[in-house]
C-alpha cells in the first residue's frame, strides 16, 4: 500500500519519516519479506510541502531562547570596557526562498536563502578610566542580519521507529549590523561592539537556532509516526508501523517499508 500525507507544518513533517536510518535497528536477512506497508513520497510532493518550510524556520527563530552575552575588552586610556547584551529577542523575520534536494542514499538537503532577521535587546557597558572614574550606561540596540541556512536532515532508528537528527545545520551570515538607539553614543563604542560582538553573536545564534530546528525535527518525526498510526487504525485494530528496512532515498522519490 502506498501512502502519502499532507501537513501544514511543512517539509520537516513528512520528509523526516523517510530519511536514511542508522544501523541501530536490526532488520534481519530478508527485511522486505515482512513488509506490510510501503510509504512513498515523490519529489513533486516534497516540493509542494516545501512551500510551508518558512513557517517552520520562523517558529525555530521565535522559539529559540537566546542567552545573555557578556564580555570585556581593554582599551587604551579607557581601561577595561565590560559589556552585556541582555533580553535578546526576535523583532522581525522574513524568509525569501527555500529549496529541497533529494541526495540519493544520503539525506534531504534543505536550503533556506535570504532570511532577514531583526533582533532587539539592551546593551549595558561600563569602563574604568585612567583616573579610576567608573561610568555605566545602558542603551537599547537592534541587530539586523541576513542569513542563509543549510539543513541536512537524517533519521536514526531507535526502538524500531525513526528519531530525527537535524544537527547537521549551518548558518551563513551575509550581514550582521548593530544599531544603537539614538545618535549620542560615541563612534568608537559602536565600532567596538560591532567588531567584537559579531563573532560571539554569530556563534550564539547558530547554536540556539540549530538546536531549536533539531528539536522541532524530532518532535515532528514523532508527530508523523502518530499520524500514520491513526491513519491506518480502525477502532481497536492497530497495525505495527515499526520499520522493516532502511528507508530508501532516490533522486525522484523517498520510500520506507513498515511491518
UniProtKB/TrEMBL annotation:
Gene Ontology annotations for the cellular component aspect, listed alphabetically: high-density lipoprotein particle
Molecular function as annotated in GO: cholesterol binding; cholesterol transfer activity; phosphatidylcholine binding; phospholipid transporter activity; triglyceride binding
Matches recorded under SUPFAM superfamilies: Bactericidal permeability-increasing protein, BPI
SMART domains: BPI1
Keywords on record: Glycoprotein, Secreted, Signal
BP GO annotations: cholesterol homeostasis; cholesterol metabolic process; high-density lipoprotein particle remodeling; low-density lipoprotein particle remodeling; phosphatidylcholine metabolic process; phospholipid homeostasis; reverse cholesterol transport; triglyceride homeostasis
Gene3D superfamilies linked: Bactericidal permeability-increasing protein, domain 1 (3.15.10.10)
Ranges of residues in domain Lipid-binding serum glycoprotein N-terminal: 40-259
Residues making up the signal peptide according to the UniProt record: 1-24
Residues that span the membrane, as ranges: none
Location within or outside the cell: Secreted
Family to which this protein belongs: Belongs to the BPI/LBP/Plunc superfamily. BPI/LBP family.
Name under which the protein is recorded: CETP protein
Source organism per UniProt: Bucco capensis (collared puffbird)
Amino acid at each position: 500500500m502506498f501512502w502519502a500525507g499532507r501537513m501544514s507544518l511543512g517539509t520537516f513533517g513528512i520528509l523526516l519519516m523517510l530519511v536514511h536510518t542508522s544501523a541501530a535497528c536490526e532488520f534481519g536477512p530478508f527485511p522486505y519479506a515482512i513488509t506490510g506497508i510501503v510509504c512513498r513520497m515523490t519529489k513533486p510532493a516534497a516540493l509542494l510541502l516545501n512551500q510551508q518550510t518558512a513557517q517552520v524556520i520562523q517558529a525555530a527563530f521565535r522559539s529559540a531562547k537566546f542567552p545573555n552575552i557578556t564580555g570585556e575588552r581593554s582599551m587604551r586610556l579607557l581601561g577595561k570596557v565590560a559589556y552585556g547584551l541582555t533580553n535578546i529577542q526576535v523583532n522581525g523575520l522574513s524568509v525569501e526562498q527555500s529549496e529541497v534536494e533529494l541526495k540519493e542514499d544520503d539525506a534531504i538537503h534543505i536550503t533556506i536563502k535570504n532570511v532577514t532577521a531583526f533582533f532587539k535587546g539592551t546593551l549595558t557597558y561600563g569602563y574604568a578610566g585612567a583616573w579610576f572614574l567608573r561610568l555605566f550606561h545602558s542603551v537599547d540596540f537592534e541587530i539586523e542580519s541576513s542569513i542563509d541556512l543549510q539543513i541536512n536532515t537524517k533519521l536514526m532508528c531507535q526502538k524500531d521507529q525513526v528519531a530525527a537528527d537535524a544537527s547537521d545545520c549551518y548558518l551563513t551570515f551575509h550581514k550582521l549590523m548593530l544599531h544603537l538607539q539614538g545618535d549620542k553614543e560615541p563612534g568608537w563604542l559602536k565600532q567596538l561592539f560591532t567588531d567584537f560582538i559579531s563573532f560571539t553573536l554569530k556563534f550564539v545564534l547558530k547554536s540556539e537556532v540549530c538546536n531549536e530546528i533539531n528539536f522541532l525535527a524530532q518532535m515532528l518525526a514523532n508527530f508523523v509516526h502518530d499520524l500514520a498510526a491513526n491513519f491506518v487504525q480502525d477502532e481497536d485494530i492497530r497495525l505495527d508501523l515499526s520499520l522493516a528496512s532502511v528507508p530508501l532515498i532516490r533522486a525522484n522519490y523517498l520510500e520506507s517499508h513498515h511491518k
